[in-house]
Amino acid sequence: MRCKFCENKAYIKIHYPKMYLCVDHFIEYFERKVKRTIERYKLLKPTERILVVISGGKDSAVTAYILKKLGYNIECLYINLGIGEYSRKSEEYVKRQCELIDAPLHIVRVKEILGAGIGEVRTRRPTCSYCGLTKRYIFNKFAYDNGFNVIATGHNLDDEASFIFSNLMNWNTEYLAKQGPLLLGEGVFVKKVKPLYELTEREVVAYALAVGIEYLIEECPYARGATTIEYKEILNQMEEERPGTKINFVKGYLRKKSLFGQELEKAELHACEVCGMPAQREKCSFCRFWRLDEPINFKI
């Protein structure tokens, strides 16, 4: 097949809208879509300091690469979760990815600051649950302590569609009320954005290969059997039969998002007695889980 815009050999078939594109026109298409997402949802301003949370995988690497290419002021943060060989390999990829785009890299090692890696804690809480809590706390506090205006993550359309689907299946209205490409900052909570919000995982992979980004293919060993993976497979089947299902599902959710917010009551928050971050009890969830008595200072 030939590219829709020139006579060169097609590199990829875009399923929605249906078209074939060569490498050059696909890169142009992808970058234009990221720009449009940033403009449509008012995600970023040229003057903002952006912290890209990078993992070694394709999504965060592409996010850092493209924001740097578009001229934004970015630095990267890698949180080494202390998951044996997986974390070691991830860190190697992260270093190469940041060298490629000449972006400053900051590394926080969970095992060094908390005394145990993810998966090494004795708890009844699911590993993915406290891992998510730990990552969210660290990247927000790191950004706040160091004066970043925005945190950018690599969530793509497949991630968002499966997250919404999962929470609708379980009627988790609190999570549904907060989802979207932009989460505005408030107080010590730093603004969070998702520049790849309208791009599929398949398109992200194709872009990474097209521009020469190396990334870790292995999934976290604790992600195996996660329900979000099952939901992604279901949505992929639906997308195969009816292209455009994912983007229309996500856009429909954004139009009706306010319905979920009506059911929420804002919990009364006060400063955690250990770290000063917002908490519903004496300690915030992070300090309570990790049994901290002293705050962690991430200032560089």
UniProtKB/TrEMBL annotation:
Zn(2+) 1 binds at C3, C6, C22, H25. Pfam families: ATP_bind_3 (PF01171), TtuA_LIM_N (PF22082). Keywords: 4Fe-4S, ATP-binding, Iron, Iron-sulfur, Magnesium, Metal-binding, Nucleotide-binding, Transferase, Zinc. The keyword Nucleotidyltransferase does not apply. One of its GO terms (molecular function) is 4 iron, 4 sulfur cluster binding. GO terms for cellular component: cytosolic tRNA wobble base thiouridylase complex. Its cofactor is Mg(2+); [4Fe-4S] cluster. Residues 14-95 form the Rhodanese domain. This is TIGR00269 family protein. It comes from Thermococcus argininiproducens.
